């Protein structure tokens, strides 16, 4: 994995965290996730 890809992956991770953390519990519930799921989703390791 090259350096540019690592930077892009980290930027995507940060953006996903920021966007999901901006949602309230009701909105997350509508999506079927909880606050505790957000990091796993951003890392791409979430299993439903």
TrEMBL record:
Annotated YjiS-like domain residues: 4-38
Top-level taxon: Bacteria
Pfam families: YjiS-like
InterPro entries, A to Z: YjiS-like (IPR009506)
Protein name as annotated: DUF1127 domain-containing protein
Organism: Devosia honganensis
């Amino acid at each position: 994995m090259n350096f540019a890809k690592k930077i892009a992956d980290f930027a995507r991770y940060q953006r996903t965290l920021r966007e999901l953390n901006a949602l309230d519990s009701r909105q997350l519930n509508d999506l079927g996730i909880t606050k505790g799921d957000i990091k796993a989703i951003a890392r791409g390791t979430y299993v439903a």
